[in-house]
Predict the structure.
Amino acid sequence: MLEKLRTLIVTLLWWAVLLLDAFIFALLLVFLPDRFRNGIALRTSSVLLLKAAGVKVRVKGLDNVLKEKPQIFVANHVSWFDSFVLCSVLPVAVTFASKKEMFRVPVYNYIMRRLHFICVDRERVRDAVSSIENAAGIFDSGLSLVVFPEGTTSKTGELGSFKRGAVLLAARAQVPIVPVAVINTRKIKFRGSPLIHYGVQTEVRISEPVEAYSMDRQNQQNTVKSIKAEMEMNLKDVPDAQ
């Protein structure tokens, strides 16, 4: 009973912090330059949300992040909190590829557009691939991109099928791909539930960059399989990780 009450109090407080955080962040975005918005400001906003939920983050492979050039981070997706965790630990300015449904949410629509998020329509595969592929221009401003190749959050925590949009973009823009495994975020907020569970230990495992510059379809499909296998390996040896 006490645990349920604690979870309810944490949930109410966290959602209040989220609304306040979003409102203040939206105001700041009017004045902040791009690199500051997508770097320090986004990171600070995410850290605040993680602290409000008592989330602890352990990072492995941080030295695999390239500081001198843009890159595409390809990560598994099991929770809203994946984005907050990644923003809190990645030492470079990032933007995200996000499903179009999120662009319908008031305030967040404005925030995502100001942060140069890429709108992806999951129901139209060709349009989704085109949205990712046409986003090459974001790298010119020094931003890196986070892509969830499964297209949506996993119901079970296991990896779903990967779309090849990130590999297409890497080949077009000539930027490397960095596979990232996000672990345990599903325990913070279960899919379909508003409840926030306090004090979850999460982990981020960053693999070595992959140069996926080939425009050949077969090579791209092989790269997708290789990246997925790398992420599966990083997730497999974590007891009850997801």
Observations:
- The domain at 2-236 is CATH 3.40.1130.10 (Glycerol-3-phosphate (1)-acyltransferase).
- The chain has one domain: 2-236.
- Residues 2-28 form the longest helix (27 residues).
- The chain is about 40% helix and 15% strand.
